[in-house]
Design a protein that fits this description.
- By secondary structure, this protein is mainly alpha-helical.
- The chain is built from ten helices and no strands.
- Helix 1 packs across helix 6 and helix 4 runs parallel beside helix 7.
Amino acid sequence: MNKRAIQKQETRSKLIQSAHHLYAEHGFLAVTMEQIAQHAGVAKGTIFTHFQSQDELICTIIQQLREQFGNQLYQQMRAVKDDIRFMLTWHIELLQEHEALYRHLIIERTLLSESAQLIYLEMQSIVSNYIFLVAQQAMEQHRIKKMEPYLFFNTWIGLLHYYIANQDLFQPAGSVLTTHAEEMVAHFYSLIKL
């Protein structure tokens, strides 16, 4: 790779990092391309050589989350086999890395483009699949109730999203996931255990 190609790749990475930071801090809809370029230390026009639109940049950010969540949950699923509490705790730990960005994503999702929403739904589908594969093992061993995959995951994600979206009620400062992780896992487990 020549020097120009390396520089172009570094600029793109810097733009993605700046967008990630600003979206996490202010939300997807409140940030302009100009603010992202300024934060990255590049000219406004530079951003458009890497991303044709803000929607493309938002989709890139969500796609990176999807890939990270999928890869890491897959690795954990292979390691934990049937320990659903561990898998749920790991899911929370994974979300903690991107809690502020994820909060904006779940709150603003329906206002984003169809493309962004589809990537979000793919991400949730991947996450639910890996978590449910672990749950299924526990069900087969009669450690938790037998449930349909959609009911299992929707109950879990509903609990998580309620806490995350309403952080101001549960944890006005700091991470709601860090503070309430054990409580959420214990509560959900009490609903599904035999």
